[in-house]
Amino acid sequence: MRAERKDKRRSEIESVALEVMRQRGYEGASMLNIAKAAKASNETLYRWYGDKQQLFLEIVKSNAADAEAALDKALAADLPPENILEEMGKRMLHLLLGERAVALNRAAASDASGHLGAAIAKGGRERVFPKIVMLMGALRKAGLIDPPNDEQAAKWFLGLLIGDLQTRRIIGTLPQPTRTQINDHVETTLQAFYRLCGPR
Amino acid sequence: MRAERKDKRRSEIESVALEVMRQRGYEGASMLNIAKAAKASNETLYRWYGDKQQLFLEIVKSNAADAEAALDKALAADLPPENILEEMGKRMLHLLLGERAVALNRAAASDASGHLGAAIAKGGRERVFPKIVMLMGALRKAGLIDPPNDEQAAKWFLGLLIGDLQTRRIIGTLPQPTRTQINDHVETTLQAFYRLCGPR
DNA sequence: GTAAAGACGTATAGATGTGTACGATTTTTG
DNA sequence: CAAAAATCGTACACATCTATACGTCTTTAC
């Protein structure tokens, strides 16, 4: 199989794996079920990924790379920091509450070894949080906020932004929000955030 | 088996089930494993609970009852509302980030049917959130806060209080916080909350 | 074009889970 | 104390998953 076709096939399989997981849970997403759904053989799955956990680890990694790229794009935009913060909020909610991230978080919750959770944290929060802290520094230097420190500001922003939405998505009691709902929520969050961290 | 002994045996079994689930995940917590660990027969488990999902539904219900009792105790205390809010924050963090709630949330995340998640929401958030809203009303009437509305204040309080701690606990990247850590976190949260919702 | 490599489908062994059945033993009831 | 009920432990049928093996077919490389 040529390298490019193989890459395409791999991402097809990973996409199908996530879809099976979405419909039948982490338990139901056996290597056999995934192979059937992807019209692949389980031998190929075992050859390529080793086992189920490593398959999902790959998915976590590629999802983290996609997410980071989406956020970096917003950060690199030539806009005033308050607009970047708004854009970051929208993109983060879109990512965190979307089907892919929710499915992966469910997988991590089902995985008693903790490896999936560690990979999510490493590719997600640990890479994103410093960027938010930096952004808070930019906002502070622009005189838009005056928090105790940038890290605290980032924590408050994320708390106000995400609240219990992510947990409710993960346990399945909240449907995926629409773009409009996300935009409204970000607007409310920003008002609260500036009220909380704005200069006296 | 006498009624009182049977009740005790049931809660023993449910406690063991949660412990097995904690160590081996929802997948690994098979009826057989639970029966062995509880020194019961799987026949008894099937007779009493029907199947694995209903067993965990029972655990969710009794946990919700315990949690509600703990919170109601704080609400009924004869204290000024700001002290009640502080106490509620501590108790909620203690409950939400404790082993029991985390294990049950993981079970709900693993359960593709959504029944466990629905039960957690029904016994948890849906019962607790209105109490927080009421408490916000009391704080507002006491002139301690001046939010857009009580519900929004409750959402902000919970967002600032919980942040991403619960998700990180569920995916296994955060250890259970100590009582000291909880107290410190609640103090910081309250400062932020009053800064956000305090009268102008 | 032909040989090598790899993917597919099926088959397989071994392990484990679900839900039920059945004696043996213990506990409750009268 | 004796009969009845319930639990325990084991066994069972059935299904499914993991991980591997093998023959066939397609794709790649020379």
Tags for this entry?
200 residues; 79% helix; Tetracycline Repressor, domain 2; elongated; Arc Repressor Mutant, subunit A; DNA-binding; mainly alpha; homodimer
Overall description:
Chains A, B: This is Transcriptional regulator, TetR family. Chains A, B: Pfam families: TetR_C_7, TetR_N. Chains A, B: Keywords: DNA-binding. The first copy, chain A, is elongated and about 65 Å long. Chain A folds into two domains: 1-50, Arc Repressor Mutant, subunit A, CATH 1.10.10; 57-197, Tetracycline Repressor, domain 2. The termini of chain A are far apart. The model of chain A has no long low-confidence stretch (mean pLDDT 94). The first copy, chain A, is mainly α and 200 residues long. Chain A has helices spanning 3-28, 31-37, 42-49, 52-76, 81-96, 99-110, 115-123, 125-141, 150-162, 165-170, 179-197. Chains A and B meet through helix 1, helix 6, helix 7, helix 9 and helix 10 of A and helix 1, helix 6, helix 7, helix 9 and helix 10 of B. The structure holds a DNA duplex (30 and 30 nucleotides).
Sheet/helix structural class of chain A: mainly alpha
Which class of the largest domain in chain A in CATH terms? Mainly Alpha
Gyration radius over CA of chain A: 19 Å
CATH fold topology of the largest domain in chain A: Tetracycline Repressor, domain 2
Number of domains of chain A: 2
- Low-confidence runs of at least 5 consecutive residues of chain A: none
Mean pLDDT of chain A: 94
Choose one word for the global shape of chain A: elongated
Largest protein-protein interface: A-B, 41 and 41 residues
Helix content estimate of chain A:
over 70%
Q: What name goes with the CATH superfamily of the largest domain in chain A?
A: Tetracycline Repressor, domain 2
Name the beta content range of chain A: under 5%
Kindly report how far apart the N and C termini of chain A lie: 63 Å
